[in-house]
Amino acid sequence: MENVRVRFAPSPTGALHIGGVRTALFNYLFAKKHNGKFILRIEDTDQGRFVEGAEKYILETLKWCGIEPDESPIHGGDFMPYRQSERNDLYKRYAEQLVQNGNAYYAFDTPEELEEMRNRLTAAKVIKPQYNTATRSSMKNSLTLSPEEVEKKLAGGEPYVIRLKVPKDEEVRLQDQVRGWVKVNTEDIDDKVLMKSDGMPTYHLANVVDDHLMKITHVIRGEEWLPSAPLHVLLYQFLGWEESMPSFAHLPLILKPDGNGKLSKRAADKAGFPIFPLNWTDPETSELAKGFRETGFLPEALINFLAFLGWNPGTEQEIFSLEDLAESFSIDRVNKAGTKFDFDKAKWFNQQYIKSLPSSTFSEDLKSSLVTQYGVECDLETTEKIIHLLKERVTYPGEFLNSSLVLFKDPVNYDEAVQRKKWNSDTPTALRLFTDQLEKQETISAANAKDLFWTTLESNGFKPGQFMQTLRLTLTGQGSGPDLMSMIEIMGPKKSAERINYSINLLDSSK
Question: Is residue 265 annotated as a catalytic residue, yes or no?
Answer without folding.
Answer: yes
